[in-house]
Amino acid sequence: MRWLALLFVFAVGALATGALGEEMTDAESSLHALKADLLSHKVTSFRLLVAPYELLTRVPLTPELLKGSATVNRVIDVDTSIRTSLVTAIDKTETSPLDSPPDLRWGAIFYDSGGVDLHSIYVNGKVLFATGRQGIIDRDLVRLNGALVEWFESTFGSLTKTPAQ
Fold this sequence. Notes:
Layout: H1 2-17, H2 26-39, E1 45-50, H3 63-69, E2 72-77, H4 80-92, E3 95-97, E4 104-111, E5 117-124, E6 134-137, E7 140-144, H5 147-156
Antiparallel strand pairs: 1-2, 1-4, 3-7, 4-5, 5-6, 6-7
Helix pairs in contact: 2-4, 4-5
């Protein structure tokens, strides 16, 4: 019986340190923390930032430049639909380190009920066959598999459309 308890302690410790698999990157840890905060309802709202893909800039849009260039800049309450779809997107997201800053077009800054900034996600614009393949997760530059930009576009794409004249 004692060996079973020791095995359990070893397994929990190994999982916590990543010894039984790959260690989590900072971005993956941030995404897991965001998911936990969404599921616990700690995240209650977020600021959505969108700059059009067609916007030409001389330098890549950083989070700070995106805030100033966004044509959509609004605070949105997190409802059940947003919570569920974002958790699904986070579960599908794969990341790897990125060396240079991407040209950001979508951003979300997540807040608690007191307005405290908890997490942020930014993804890039259209680059040949690479839309949403680069981003920033809580200040970490990452390559992405596209799940997050698909979430942004499917959930908020209608906000970027201008009415026909």
